[in-house]
Amino acid sequence: MIDRPSTILDRIGNTSLIALRNIRPAHGGRVLLKLENENPTGSMKDRMALAMIEAAEADGRLEPGGSVVEYTGGSTGVSLSLVCAVKGYPLDIVTSDAFAQEKRDHMALLGATLHIVRSDSGRMTERLTKDMIEQARIIAEAKGSFWTDQMKNRDQIGAYHRMADEIWQQTNGRIDGFVQSVGTAASLRGIAEGLRWHHSPIQIMAVEPAESPVLSGGPSGAHKIDGIGAGYVVPLWQASIADRIERVTTEEATAMALRLAREEGLFAGTSTGANVVAALRLAEWLGPDAIVVTVMCDTGMKYLKMFGARLEANRL
Q: Which residue in 22, 114, 133, 230 has the fewest CB atoms around it within 10 Å?
């Protein structure tokens, strides 16, 4: 039997787990960070993009010579662009000027055709999300493309079950809490399900923007934490997933992302900043012996212009 030739897609998953050394709760336990920036595009979304495409190939929704369409803030789009480039599928991406220019450039460099939906002053809102979804639907219908439809696609959940297995093995089953921000809710749901199959008492904390706290019963609003907080209760969300829902502001998330870079040498985006803010709160609540795991969702290299503007503003 001849082995299948390896590709960059074989490098997805099996990422490292490390403990934060300097950023710690005052009286709580340890916070461990799953380094999803080690995936090929620097994002955990590589896992779900590959899972959605392979599931569609397996059941015939995506046939040889077919094409793909998706709406995305960027990380899912970059990951789909990578997968489709390797597999040879033309890809249409609906995105917005609300999201990082670096992500849009990365998608285009990988061969995706971009369709830009204008935002309200660069802010993420419920209206923007729904406008992007409608544009993707129109393109899929016109071209006969396979629409991955990430907000509803359950195929991605299995990829996060596997990520849960990695976390369980890396902690040797010693984990008291897991924290993850909510975009499509697939990663939180899949990892939480996987961890609870191993050890049901784990505390699961969902994270959402404080400016748009719809999961915890608040009003929809605008925020600037890339990749999370759609502005409405997303289809894959289940209230039973999380034991707690934590609200984190854009400012808190951004400040923590900068702290991670300066104090831990970990350059991440604002969704990671939000995760760490919430994980510190959960570790404090669980006590000094607790181990809490959260996710470095992607690399801060995707947000260089945004962080650069922040640094420039601080100099003025």
A: 22
